[in-house]
Amino acid sequence: MYTHLKSNHNEPLLEARSRSLMIWCIEELTVILHRTYDTAMTEMQEYKAKSNEKCLLSYKDASLEDINELQSPPHKGLDIAADDFKNQLSPAIS
Q: 30-44, 48-62, 77-91: lowest mean pLDDT where?
């Protein structure tokens, strides 16, 4: 009978600990989520500002280098790396 009373007595304490742990976890995750959101928004604003700088160039203000940069395909280095990878696979396949 004593153990039954003792276990019933500790249940509210365990529930309180569980609740406080859950509240702490939620608060920590909320802080992490807000920090990540703020970082993403800052990066997006920086990217948008850089994009607007390039887009705001008029044909009079743009140099040949600026035009070539805008016309060049993105990720040029990745295409070369993919070709190198394919070339390395070719001997293994044949």
A: 77-91
